[in-house]
Amino acid sequence: MKVPQFMPYVDMEEWEAIKSCFEINWITEGPKSKEFNKQICEKVGCKYGVFANNGTLALYLGLRAIGVGPGDEVIVPDFTFIASANAIEMTGAKPIFCDINKDDLQINIESCRSVITKNTKAIMPVHLYGFAANMDDVMSLAKENNLLVIEDAAQALGIKWNGKGCGSFGDVATFSFFADKTITTGEGGFVCTNDEKIYEKLLYLRNQGRINRGSFVHPEIGYNFRMTDIQAAIGLKQLEKFDDIVYRKNNNFKIYSELLKDTEGIEILQPRSEINPFIPFRVVARVTEESSSENIMEYMKEKGIETRTFFYPLHMQPCFKEIMVGQKLKQENSIDSYNRGICLPSFAALKHEEIEYVCNTIKEYLAG
Ligand SMILES: *Cc1c(COP(=O)(O)O)cnc(C)c1O
Q1: Nearest to residue 88, comparing CAs of 99, 77, 100?
Q2: What is the domain extent for residue 311?
Q3: What is the 3 state secondary structure string of 332-350?
């Protein structure tokens, strides 16, 4: 049996949706983008939103819109996809890495507090793996220190923390519609905000420094972050499948948790009670030191199962050598999580017998 790490949940319905753009002959940002935008805002619980080309550029756009630039520091967890930090670097600001919680892999508030300086402009909590950062703590820390908040919610569309949507807490928040995210448009990103001024700034930045197309007078400097209606058509179809995707992913998660609950040497990380709905982005497992995640993954690969490691700690990234000059914090939980973490195959179309096969393979390995 071969079990891939991920497969997008698309079929001929998305294909038909693409065709409909050609039938009305509108392929650039247009009526479908408008409708997709409205539905995403509703799902998140935010007032305004704009598209970007992908999640990385959505972060860049969001950071620029709240005024982050050269000389500023932005605090980001040491344990996240590298795009979170690179978007900060792209604005000319400096990413400062703080540690995560061991239990839920989200931003550690005490560690975040300890790296605030007079240059700190913003905090970027990242909602990882279908869990959510503790946004009560993040927002109060930001308020106490007069800092802005940009949520990297690339993996968190539809997830709620204490009844409020991920992406509706910060000054801005961003989403990604890459193929392995909860819904996909192939590539794509979204920035949302509840602040009218920030929204206006986003509009200028994404559309060549003007609010509407068709005019060649540009009050501000801006760029092109537009999407296409072809992508929006796929997105709208994906949103129709949203509840089905959420149900399937949760069901997979439950089966994994049940099958491995008494297995010594490995645990499936569970969401905190404040997270509801929980939408597993990955099924994340942690092994004991003796089990060695590297050896298990090697064994699973031989059996045709595609796993992924956890994120490599950002402070150890070869590309961040210069950014690390002067940063002294020890990110112990980030390192430990990387060493002991495994992402198991998890996607909406995963079958019961495939999960059984994965779990049996793990048990086989752990039994020696
Ligand atoms: C996917 C992802 C991004 C980047 O999104 P792209 O659309 O791939 O550019 C940023 N942050 C996190 C946490 C992600 O998972």
Answers
A1: 77
A2: 243-366
A3: HHHHHHHHHEEEECCCCCC
CATH number of domain containing 185 = 3.40.640.10
User: Which atom of ligand 1 is least distant from the CA of 178?
Assistant: 7
Q: Which of 203, 220, 240 is a domain's end point?
A: 240
Q: Evaluate whether residue 2 is within a structural domain.
A: no
Kindly give the pairing relationship between strand 283-287 and strand 266-268.
Answer: antiparallel
Residues 214 and 248 in one domain: no
CB of 126 closer than 6 angstroms to any ligand 1 atom = yes
Residue 177 CA to ligand 1 center (angstroms) comes to 8
Residue 216 shares a structural domain with residue 253:
no
From 199, 219, 240, give the residue that closes a domain. 240
* Ligand 1 pocket check for 152: Cβ under 6 Å: yes
Q: Return the minimum-mean-pLDDT range out of 224-238, 275-289, 300-314, 319-333.
A: 319-333
Position in ligand 1 atom list of the atom nearest CA 128? 13
pTM: 0.97
Task: Please tell me the distance between residue 56's alpha carbon and the centre of ligand 1 in angstroms.
Answer: 6
pLDDT, tens digit, 9 for 90 and up, residues 225-284: 999 999 999 999 999 999 999 999 999 999 999 999 999 999 999 999 999 999 999 999
Closest among 227, 308, 228, 239 to 10, alpha carbons compared = 239
Q: Tell me, using a 6 A CB cutoff, whether residue 51 lines ligand 1.
A: no
Read off the tokens for 98: 């703080």
Structure-token match 């703590």, residue found = 137
Look at the block and give the residue holding tokens 């790296």: 115
Residue 208 inside a domain? The answer is: yes
**Minimum-distance ligand 1 atom for the alpha carbon of 180:** 1
- Taking only the tens place, the pLDDT of each residue in 104-152 is 999 999 999 999 999 999 999 999 999 999 999 999 999 999 999 999 9
